[in-house]
């Protein structure tokens, strides 16, 4: 893709604004490459070479992934990583790489997760405001289904992830709370054999809109997301120890305070636009 074309698609502009090498849209082609699968047809992102290199080092020659769990904590931006390094230090310790990435505009949940899982800019995938239509462009889920992989999406009922990826031959688990979504994720690890699981965690985002980005309630929700990821890391070492697997910490955007009591997002401010994606690989145990 030429630089001019990528500039026009709404990915490179944000990357250049914050001097970043990667976009959240790069997640989709990277995941597909790690599985040895093709990219979604409308994908405009690029494979993240440092991530692919680590996978090559972790796995035997020519081996690919055969299990992935994508943990999606809503609204946890780089600004929190910088403000609370002690909380995030363990994420760096328990993962192989942190990829700083530019979100897309507007930096709201359906727009951003559509880009994460399609690899396309908002102008291409079609969601350019806060609304939740079913995506008609190809996503990683379509690619996995084509390859006869089993996929599950676990999320709170009627949230963005629960709505925009519907009408595909995958399993949808819609729960009434983030706690129940996480419990369901753990239950599936014990009682199913999915190839790809997406688990959404919207606690921090919900708290931000009610009490602000750094209220005690919001920071507790942030720490809960980190703790849930770490719990999944431990569980997968037991449940998927015969597989080459990947666990990711994949937020959509960040957030900023609107006033003394409430926060939000959707702007091109640094706090909203820069996120960290963490990747943890594990090779099959003999």
List keywords for this structure.
286 residues; 8-stranded mixed beta sheet; alpha/beta; single chain; two-stranded antiparallel ribbon; 10 strands; 14 helices; 43% helix; Alkaline Phosphatase, subunit A
At a glance:
This protein is α/β, with parallel strands linked by helices. The protein is built from 14 helices and ten strands.
Order of helices and strands: HHEHHEHHEHHHEHEHEHHEEEHE
Strand order of the largest sheet: 1-3-10-7-2-6-4-5
**Biggest sheet record:** 8 strands, mixed
Radius of gyration: 17 Å
Number of strands: 10
Q: How does this model look, in words?
A:
The chain is an alpha/beta fold and 286 residues long. Helices cover 43% and strands 17% of the residues. An eight-stranded mixed beta sheet has the order 1-3-10-7-2-6-4-5, with helices on both faces. Strand 8 and strand 9 (263-264) form a beta hairpin. Helix 6 (85-94) packs parallel to helix 13 (216-239) and helix 11 runs parallel beside helix 13 (216-239). The radius of gyration is 17 Å and the shape is globular. The protein starts with a helix and ends with a strand.
Could you give the topology of this structure?
Blueprint (H helix, E strand, L loop, with lengths): L2 H6 L3 H6 L4 E2 L3 H9 L13 H10 L8 E7 L4 H6 L1 H10 L2 E6 L6 H10 L3 H4 L14 H7 L4 E6 L3 H5 L6 E5 L2 H14 L4 E6 L1 H9 L4 H24 L5 E5 L6 E2 L5 E2 L5 H4 E9 L4
Parallel strand pairs: 1-3, 2-6, 2-7, 4-5, 4-6
Antiparallel strand pairs: 3-10, 7-10, 8-9
Helix pairs in contact: 6-13, 11-13, 12-13
């Amino acid at each position: 893709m030429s630089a001019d074309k990528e500039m026009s698609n709404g990915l490179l502009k944000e990357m250049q604004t914050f001097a970043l090498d990667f976009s959240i849209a790069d997640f989709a082609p990277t995941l597909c490459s790690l599985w040895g699968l093709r990219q979604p047809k409308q994908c405009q992102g690029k494979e993240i070479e440092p991530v692919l290199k680590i996978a090559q080092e972790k796995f035997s020659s020519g081996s690919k992934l055969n299990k992935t769990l994508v943990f999606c904590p809503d609204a946890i931006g780089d600004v929190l990583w910088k403000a609370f390094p002690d909380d995030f230090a363990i994420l760096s310790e328990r993962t192989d790489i942190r990829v700083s990435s530019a979100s897309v505009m507007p930096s709201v949940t359906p727009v951003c997760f559509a880009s994460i899982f399609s690899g396309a800019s908002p102008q291409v995938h079609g969601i350019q405001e806060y609304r939740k239509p079913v995506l008609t462009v190809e996503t990683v889920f379509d690619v996995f289904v084509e390859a006869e992989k089993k996929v599950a999406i676990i999320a709170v009922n009627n949230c963005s992830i629960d709505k925009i990826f519907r009408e595909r031959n995958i399993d949808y688990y819609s729960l009434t709370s983030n706690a129940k979504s996480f419990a369901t994720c753990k239950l599936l690890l014990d009682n199913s054999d999915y190839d790809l699981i997406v688990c959404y965690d919207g606690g921090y985002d919900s708290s931000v809109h009610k009490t602000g980005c750094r209220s005690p309630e919001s920071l507790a929700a942030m720490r809960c997301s980190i703790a849930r990821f770490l719990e999944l890391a431990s569980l997968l070492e037991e449940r998927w120890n015969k597989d080459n697997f990947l666990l990711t910490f994949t937020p959509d955007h960040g957030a900023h305070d609107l006033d003394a009591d409430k926060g939000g997002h959707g702007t091109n401010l640094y706090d909203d636009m820069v996120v960290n994606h963490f990747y943890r690989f594990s090779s099959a145990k003999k």
